[in-house]
Design goal:
Elements: H1 2-32, E1 39-40, H2 48-54, H3 56-62, H4 82-85, H5 88-92, H6 111-117, H7 143-151, H8 153-157, H9 190-198, H10 208-217, E2 224-226, E3 237-239, H11 248-258, E4 263-264, E5 271-272, H12 279-283, H13 287-290, H14 295-299, E6 302-305, E7 308-311, H15 322-325, H16 334-371, H17 376-398, H18 402-405, H19 407-434, H20 449-455, H21 460-472, H22 474-487, E8 492-493
Antiparallel strand pairs: 1-8, 2-3, 4-5, 6-7
Helix pairs in contact: 2-3, 16-17, 16-19, 17-19
Length: 499
């Protein structure tokens, strides 16, 4: 009896060891053939599906950026109308494209579709038409470095957004960040290289871990279009304003020294700055950056399937992937970590909205002063205060994740904005009194996006009609032209000998 039990136990152990050995062999086999190339990827290959032939797991995870089901307190991938949620933004951006249309960015899969659809790009009827320059395409597609290589950097920036519509059709993807031969991370946008040069730094000295953030910094940064660069006058050349540093005051001084403005505010006549999305600048002031954690560590964490470990290219909020993104380092429960994030974001938003309220009132009070006959000399210091206060508000708001990435720095920036905005309103109160107005300025009803847009004089129906006409007539021609162009491109299959 004893021998029979021993025999059965032995058979079971041998069977389990056989399963384990088989699993190990399978995993080793999978790992061995992970990067066997199927096609030859050329230097200017912009089509993500072609890259996916060689890097199937990364490509399959990248396709998941099309998922728009996740929404959090301050982000996610779901479509959100920011003007609908907060109509005060319409007043803050009066005279600028963001007062027309401001939706939260979705996943990288929608980069082209969303820029086609936004009212900010207008309804061009053909080449040379529309409100936006070609430079607006820069961060939207791997067709951008392809086109820069083909026609030149300055030539890419020249002209209107509509001029390059047929050329830029592939969503943000592989060629934006990777060398096609070695798959090493690379910088494909010259503005980042030029910004490092302006700071006296060589981006070629960046470590691999630093590159896992710098490839993101090609786009998730503050920038402006400089039309006065020596030798490039008239071209809206993309520049990152980092010459003095990346702090909010450093970039503000850079812009002030140039007397640069993104637009003149329609209500207050303030020469305004629009913070784009200074995500990298705020990230580097936070504790995660200080600990050497890269953007990819949280937004593109490593993932294992079978015997293969690879970077998950489902670029998304870490809150939707906490096991891989957060709990690798933090041992708390997911619900606790999420509560910590939301608490920081909610408190930051509470303070930021107070600054937002002050700015809306300051713009409207400034208009009252102009209406009562204020002179440019009387308004000069007030407008500088409004400019600087809104720059700080926008810096903290447009950087999206700043209240988590760097809550201390974000609180400092908002606090500075609150102080400057209050000073602007004190000066306005004194000026209004001198002009004979000794009571509070009446505030308009801007309780909805529609009411706010009507207040600043936007004809949204006209803008929407122009956009629909563009989508019905010109856009299909762009897509047909692009399809015909790409159909002529060869994809060389790698031979057995080359493998």
């Amino acid at each position: 009896m004893k021998n029979k039990v021993l025999f059965i136990v032995t058979v079971i152990v041998v069977f389990l060891l056989g399963l384990l050995a088989s699993s190990i062999i399978d995993r080793k086999s999978e790992a061995k053939y992970k990067y066997v190339p199927k096609v030859d990827i050329n230097e200017n290959e912009a089509r993500n599906a072609v890259w996916g032939e060689n890097y199937q797991k990364e490509y399959q995870s990248f396709l998941q950026t099309a998922d728009t089901t996740f929404s959090s307190f301050q982000g996610g991938s779901a479509m959100r109308d920011m003007l609908e949620e907060d109509p005060r933004l319409v007043v803050l951006f009066a005279g600028y494209g963001f007062s027309k249309d401001y939706n939260q960015g979705r996943g990288h899969s929608y980069a082209i579709e969303d820029i086609h659809n936004t009212l900010r790009t207008g309804g061009p009827k053909g080449k040379g038409d529309g409100p936006m320059p070609a430079t607006c395409w820069t961060c939207k597609s791997p067709d951008v470095p392809r086109l820069m290589n083909e026609i030149g950097i300055e030539e890419f920036y020249q002209g209107k957004w509509a001029d390059k519509g047929p050329e830029i059709v592939n969503n943000i993807g592989c060629a934006d960040c990777h060398d096609p031969k070695s798959m090493k991370l690379r910088i494909t946008r010259p503005a980042l290289v030029e910004a490092f040069d302006a700071m006296g730094k060589d981006i070629n000295n960046a470590t691999h871990q630093e590159m896992r953030s710098l490839v993101c910094a090609q786009c998730h940064v503050e920038y402006y279009f400089n039309k006065n660069l020596p030798g490039k006058e008239g071209t809206p050349y993309l520049v990152f304003p980092w010459k003095n540093g990346m702090a909010v005051e450093d970039m503000e001084k850079y812009y002030d020294d140039l007397e640069f403005k993104d637009w003149t505010h329609k209500i207050s006549k303030t020469p305004m700055l629009k913070a784009q999305h200074p995500g990298y600048e705020t990230y580097i002031t936070g504790v995660h950056a200080d600990r050497g954690v890269s953007c990819a560590d949280c937004h593109m964490p490593y993932k294992s399937e079978g015997g293969q470990k690879f970077t998950d290219h489902h670029i998304q909020s870490p809150l939707n992937n906490m096991a891989n993104a957060c709990q690798v380092c933090h041992r708390e429960e997911g619900s606790k970590l999420m509560a910590n994030v939301f608490e920081r974001q909610q408190k930051s938003t509470e303070t930021r909205l107070k600054l937002e309220d002050l700015l809306v009132k300051a713009h409207i009070e400034a208009k009252k002063a102009w209406d009562l006959g204020a002179t440019e000399e009387q308004m000069k210091a007030i407008l500088i205060d409004i400019r600087h206060a809104q720059w700080r508000w926008d810096y903290s708001a447009a950087s999206h994740g700043a209240s988590f990435h760097s809550p201390v720095e974000t609180a400092r920036v908002i606090g500075g904005g609150l102080n400057i905005a209050q000073e602007a309103r004190v000066k306005l109160a004194r000026l209004l009194a001198d002009l004979g107005h000794n009571k509070p300025v009446e505030m308009p009803d801007i309780s909805s996006k529609e009411k706010a847009q009507a207040f600043i004089g936007l004809d949204i129906e006209k803008l929407e009609a122009e956009k629909e006409e563009f989508k019905k007539t010109l856009l299909p021609k762009w897509l047909e032209e692009a399809k015909a162009r790409e159909a002529k491109l060869d994809v060389k299959t790698v031979s057995t000998q080359e493998k």
